[in-house]
Amino acid sequence: MVAAQTSNCKKRTLLDFTCAKDIWSDVEHWAKDQGYDLKNQNGAERTYQKGAGFWATSSMLLIRQDDDKVHVETWSLSNMIIFKAEIATDEEKMVAKPIRKKNAERINKLLTALESPVMITVK
């Protein structure tokens, strides 16, 4: 059932903006405050996860800074043992709306700290 509901959903929310400062101290402070764990770091790119994603959906964030350019990807990850689904935080369908809305609230706190001109809206 989850596979059918998510098959036509957008996988990830993608945001790009500029930020003149080094973002990593703000990102680390936000991650600690919001309960996100660093899952992967590859150069100027880091992936964070809130929740284990086994019995419940976890919230994911990938963030990268290249000079003054910041790239953000955010999504919810459902792990149904044999089926994994990524659902964009700003997906317009009703799938996992309460989870996506809470994820957007947390990510928007980070975007505010980074003085981003873009925010995530869940309809």
Structure, described:
The protein is of the alpha+beta class and 123 residues long. Helices cover 27% and strands 35% of the residues. The protein is built from three helices and six strands, in the order H-E-H-E-E-E-E-E-H. It has helices at residues 2-6, 24-34, 97-113, and strands at residues 13-18, 37-42, 45-50, 58-66, 69-79, 84-88. Strands 1, 2, 3, 4, 5 and 6 form a six-stranded antiparallel sheet that branches. Helix 2 packs antiparallel against helix 3. The longest helix has 17 residues, at 97-113. The chain starts with a helix and ends in a 10-residue tail after the last helix.
Structural class label: alpha+beta
Instruction: Tell how many strands the DSSP assignment holds.
Output: 6
The 3D shape can be described as globular
Gyration radius, rounded: 14 Å
Mean pLDDT over all positions? 86
The succession of helices and strands, N to C, reads: HEHEEEEEH
Q: Beta fraction of the residues?
A: 25-35%
Largest sheet: 6 strands, antiparallel
Please give the count of helices: 3
Proportion in helices: 25-40%
Oligomeric composition of the shown chains: single chain
Stretches with pLDDT under 50, minimum 5 residues: 1-6
- What is the CA–CA distance across the termini? 22 Å
